[in-house]
């Protein structure tokens, strides 16, 4: 009955409300209760020969001469608890075991050619994957994984690793992932990730949102980083990211950043930055909401094409850069750069010499309209 009550709360939340509108504890209790109830009612199912044959994807590939071998298997959503028949398919390169009831994936060790593996939405407490020398992609999201000890040594060829929605408090087992380009470990219990810079030197896309991070100093030495999503943490200060010449997207919204100047200093020397999100931080000395804040950020980071999830318009860039300039020639130059189709004069003096059909047609007047007055 208690489980049923929790499930009812979990399933009947108001339309349009996301998980953040509930307390995280209540959401987790509801999900855990649902898993326990399903586990108790459903019979144990094994991936036996018959079940495996039904799960094979019809994409035959030649395997030496006239013989053929299956390369893909989709055994998702079958209430599987064991995988006894996997060894019969050593040529598999893609395997989907998501949405089952697996507590162990040790049987996957028989598939030495496996390139892509999904074990998302199972009951795993640890990723007990044996040696997987060919594995490039592993999706283990939405389990109950507490640690990934030794994973970097057993699956050293991984390029994409997805661990969202688990119970991780550390990523210390990732040492050795020298080919890892994408790591997603949001919605965990991570409080520090200092080992990432050395564990995955080629990491380009990183998502650590909704954790307990306070210190992200390791980012400063991750030169290959292009995307960093760190929303909903406890970060109060960004490190200087001047070495991150490829950084194009940064999301540090919903943190504890208090200094806009420190944010500017931290991102100085990031010429590739195009997308930035910093909303819901307690910045001191500035209005953290509305157009004024947006224009201030566009002045600080003129290379942005998207801010807080919204595209940056050309006229916004003109307004932003005009806020800190009273020079007419400078205003015209700014406007000509961002609005080249308006046919503005090359300088304020040239604008003054042009004949006017009306005062409002003056290029000099147009340079001031909506930007600095």
UniProtKB/TrEMBL annotation:
The keyword Repeat applies. It comes from Emiliania huxleyi (Coccolithophore). InterPro entries: Leu-rich_rpt, Leu-rich_rpt_typical-subtyp, LRR_dom_sf, SDS22/Internalin_LRR. PANTHER family: LEUCINE-RICH REPEAT AND IQ DOMAIN-CONTAINING PROTEIN 1-RELATED, LEUCINE-RICH REPEAT-CONTAINING PROTEIN 9. Keywords: Leucine-rich repeat, Repeat. It comes from the Eukaryota. This is Protein phosphatase 1 regulatory subunit 7. SMART domains: LRR_BAC (SM00364), LRR_TYP (SM00369).
């Amino acid at each position: 009955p208690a489980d049923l009550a929790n499930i009812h709360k979990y399933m009947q939340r108001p339309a349009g409300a996301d998980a953040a509108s509930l307390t995280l504890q209540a959401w987790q209790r509801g999900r855990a209760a649902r898993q326990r109830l399903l586990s108790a009612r459903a019979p144990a199912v094994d991936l036996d020969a018959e079940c495996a044959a039904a799960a094979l994807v019809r994409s035959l590939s030649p395997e030496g001469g006239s013989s053929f071998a299956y390369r893909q298997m989709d055994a998702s959503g079958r209430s599987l608890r064991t995988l006894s028949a996997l060894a019969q398919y050593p040529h598999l390169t893609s395997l989907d075991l998501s949405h089952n009831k697996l507590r162990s994936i040790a049987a996957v060790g028989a598939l030495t050619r496996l390139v892509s593996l999904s074990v998302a939405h199972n009951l795993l407490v640890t990723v007990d994957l044996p040696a997987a020398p060919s594995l490039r992609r592993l999706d283990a999201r939405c389990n109950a994984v507490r640690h990934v000890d030794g994973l970097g040594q057993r699956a050293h060829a991984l390029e994409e690793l997805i661990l969202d929605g688990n119970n991780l408090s550390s990523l210390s087992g990732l040492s050795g992932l020298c080919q890892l380009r994408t790591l997603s470990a949001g919605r965990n219990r991570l409080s520090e990730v200092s080992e990432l810079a050395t564990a995955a030197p080629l990491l380009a896309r990183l998502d650590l949102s909704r954790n307990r991070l306070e210190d992200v100093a390791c980012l400063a030495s991750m030169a290959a980083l292009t995307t960093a999503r760190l929303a909903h943490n406890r970060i109060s200060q960004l490190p200087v990211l001047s070495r991150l010449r490829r950084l194009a997207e940064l999301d540090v919204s919903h943190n504890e950043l208090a200094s806009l100047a420190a944010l500017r200093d931290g991102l100085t020397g990031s010429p590739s930055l195009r997308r930035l999100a910093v909303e819901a931080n307690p910045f001191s000395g500035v209005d953290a909401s509305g157009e004024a804040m947006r224009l201030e950020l566009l002045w600080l980071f003129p290379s942005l094409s998207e801010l807080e999830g919204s595209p940056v318009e050309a006229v916004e860039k003109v307004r932003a850069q005009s806020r800190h300039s009273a020079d007419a020639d400078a205003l015209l130059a700014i406007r000509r750069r961002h609005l080249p189709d308006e046919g503005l004069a090359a300088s304020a003096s040239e604008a003054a010499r042009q004949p006017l059909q009306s005062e409002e047609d003056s290029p000099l007047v147009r340079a001031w309209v909506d930007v600095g007055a």
